[in-house]
Specification:
about 160 residues; about 15% helix; about 45% strand; four-stranded mixed beta sheet; mainly beta
Length: about 160
């Protein structure tokens, strides 16, 4: 079974230029397969756009085959993107990194400066054992962190400073 998607690929296959005197050779490490349009698909690792309902999700660093003729994208059967896209859709994430799918990942659904993100990540790491799947609230001093956790992804929705 293969998943087919239209996409925007941003990372090309590895290309190494070898120079021998006046000749230049290009050595490309790639795996190819035939596309249904008859052209050759090249294996890439890059960004693929997915649309679920009205949400556009960019899946970064995902291995896929790409046809430059018809712009078709095909995944190997063992590249199961469906569970990751379901989580991203439920959390309303706009970007997900395929390579970090098995690691604990903290994402922010609001704009925050880097030092605030680092502080929030530290608070979450200290309380990780108490954060169950679904919605959570962490009270830390005069701060309240609100978010959701689904599997290995924690989406921080907002941080509130308590006013006493």
């Amino acid at each position: 079974m293969e998943f087919l998607y239209r996409h925007k690929s941003t990372i090309d296959y590895k290309e190494e230029i070898l120079e021998f005197g006046s000749e230049v050779m290009v050595d490309r490490e790639r795996i190819e397969r035939e596309c249904i349009c008859g052209k050759t698909m090249i294996q890439k690792i890059g960004t693929v756009d997915h649309h679920i309902d009205y949400l556009k999700i960019e899946l970064h660093n995902v291995p896929h085959y790409y046809c430059s003729q018809c712009e078709r994208v095909v995944y190997d059967i063992d590249t199961d993107i469906t569970p990751l896209l379901k989580v991203a859709s439920k959390l309303r994430l706009k970007e997900v990194d395929w390579q970090n799918r098995n690691n604990m990942t903290i994402v922010f659904t609001f704009n925050a400066v880097d030092n605030l993100k680092q502080e929030i990540q530290g608070i979450i790491n200290e309380n990780i054992d108490n954060i169950n799947d679904e919605s959570f609230v962490i009270m830390f001093g005069s701060r309240v962190i609100v978010g959701q956790r689904i599997g290995n992804i924690i989406a921080v929705e907002k941080m509130i400073w308590k006013v006493i």
